[in-house]
Amino acid sequence: MAAGTLGRIRTELPGLPEALRRVGERILEDPERAARLTIIALAELSGSSPATVTRFCRMFGFAGYTELRVALATEIGRAAQANWGAGMGREIGPADPLDAAIETMAATDARLIHETAAQLDTEVVGKVADAIVAANRVLLFGVSISGAVAAMLEARLRRIRISCWSHSDAHEALADAALLEAGDVAIGISHRGRTREVLEALAEAGGHGATLVAVTSFARSPLAELADLVLTTAGRQMETFRAGGLSAVHSQLFVLDAVYLAVAQRTYERAKNSYELTINAVESHRVERG
């Protein structure tokens, strides 16, 4: 996959074997330089071997090192054109001026959404949307911040007549998961893909024949391995103030918004009519302009 390469490497880096991790670290230190290096030069720089570099390339979906170099060069060119580097990757300190901190946040979050869009598999999005449209019940599971994200998608799907529920309480999630059947859909949301409650709920749903969907930043996480369909998000770990899960919220919302859009397209007339009905129903609760 050529798009979103740096974001995928950055996200997956902590879980890679040591030799592969060193290759990824050298690439992330200076992507522009890495795009110019030969496979032998990168192997020497990372203290590995050409075979290890090739294995690294294949792990990220490239046939070989040449494809990786092209992908890096292409992404670097897009980033330079969009001026994504301004404030990107800088940690926010307690003494930083607020305007500088906000610039860093804006650059980081905008880049994460671009990386998520670049790596998003539209075929998988379509399959998830098809499954949701055909399902009698759709359940969403998430804990803490991911639970809030699940609740937002639930609210949107309900307004276009999709029978949908979300839970952040483990007992409620397990109880509803046990009532799912073949043809239903269970969606688990977890930045790192290792939240025990989400894994248990999805496993319970899968045991009753439901289609399992994972939304995670880690394509080789336990959650991704458990699911039938995986939607990956870009995430970035910042050491101060903004944990990885919090920084990934925008990416999660973007991916789920794409799913919502695909569902609405597939049920256009019903969705349009339902949305208009719900807008009219709450109109009396809006304060008129003065």
UniProtKB/TrEMBL annotation:
Domain SIS: 128-269
Keyword DNA-binding listed: yes
Protein name: DNA-binding transcriptional regulator, MurR/RpiR family, contains HTH and SIS domains
Keyword Endoplasmic reticulum found: no
Phylogenetic classification of the source organism: Bacteria, Bacillati, Actinomycetota, Actinomycetes, Streptosporangiales
Membrane-traversing stretches: none
GO biological process assignments: carbohydrate derivative metabolic process
A Gene Ontology molecular function term of the record: DNA-binding transcription factor activity
UniProt domain HTH rpiR-type: residue ranges: 3-79
Native source organism of the sequence: Thermostaphylospora chromogena
Cross-referenced Pfam families: HTH_6, SIS
Alphabetized UniProt keyword annotations: DNA-binding, Transcription, Transcription regulation
